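Researcher: Structure for this, please.
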Amino acid sequence: MTTTSDSTRRDPAARPPGPGFGTVGSLRRIRDRQLTGFLDDLRADHPRMTYVRLGDEYAYLLFEPDLARSLFAEHGRDTTKGRGLERAREILGQGLLTSEGAFHREQRRLVQPAFHGDRISAYAEIMRDEAVRTSAKWADGRRVLMAEEMGALTLRIVGRSLFGSQLSEADIHTVSDAVNTLFGSFSRLLMPWAGVVGRLPTRRNRRLFAARAGLDALVYRLISEHRGAGDNGDLLSMLLLARDSGGEPMPDVQIRDEVLTVLLAGHETTAMALTWTWLLLARNPAAAARLNAEVDAAPDELGALPYTRAVVAESMRIFPPAWIIGRRAAADLVVDGWTVPAGTLITTSPWVLHRDDRWWGDGQAFRPERWLTADGTFDEAAPGQPRGAYFPFGAGRRVCIGESFAWTEAVLALATLARHWAPEMLPETSAEVRPAITLRPADRTPMILRRRGVAPST
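Model: Predicted structure, token format:
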């Protein structure tokens, strides 16, 4: 982040240009426009950097790639997780998504081998197999909620590949219901009074506690089933065999936190990416036709599916599952010349940067070909966007540990299903978003399954 000699801007009391309203004004605008629309409005008025007040603290918002990149890279060690994940710690415990400092680095070291290249290659067979199973269950003309279909698919993939377990339909419903309950509370997590309200015995909180209890029962059952089984090549086996520097095993509660984090984060982001992808393909028949031609001719291998990968990349650009990323300053920082006091929230948003016409030609348009080079290969730099304008999996030291897993899963699942299916939109299907921990569709994306090559009945 750039530094300036302007002493006024270094004054901790000075702030960048802001919208001019306080907490009540912010909450009213969030209510009227949702968080995504609220961010769009702020960027329109303050295209580089601004701030808002939330209760007794300020949140700084960064809207340009160089500022976003520096937040993750230059100041990665000077920041901690933001408000949303601070609150999420009450559910997820001290897993990779929420832990900090030396403890986080040690846990990441223990989990990392589960996502090495050789493991991803082995998981790819499971990904294809589960996509084939989903395809076999689908029926031409059936009405589905695509968000639920993709959620069930990615849960089965995570269950088999990372936990060595075939999750039952009851397990999938437990996780799905819990995710809907947990993520439905996200907007409250960001509010100034979240800590107090979260402890009240309200009906919503009772549902939240019940969801957490259901997830705990599932996770501890998985741990019990794996104990003493040795290394089966999955993440849970590795965690059970892990030993700290003193030779002590990882406590069950910590294994629970890591398993629950991977179970929720490891399936939800990919499920949402695939859901939005199906919607975008249904709205863009030329792109769907090019995808179909590729999957019909190519084997199910990541390197042989450049356009399929471009479709997923473009989908995550327009509808990034991780749509907002927050940090909290652990020390006074200088952000674009402005002093950001320790304890201040600093936020950037893939939703905003991924769609900004300044970095993307026709940023709202679905154009997968922008990710292809002249010779037709996929290249994340092909669109010509500046560094920091595209970060669907985060960036810097805390970049998502499962990024390679998610790319492989999304591309292979899409290719396998698209070989036989071309889901269509219904009149009520919309692209309205519901921003929670991930960017979810407001209507769970109702669609009609259409088998390719089969004309709809009249």
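Researcher: Any notable elements?
Model: Residues 1-8 have pLDDT under 50 and may be disordered. The CA atoms of residues 183 and 436 lie 5 Å apart.
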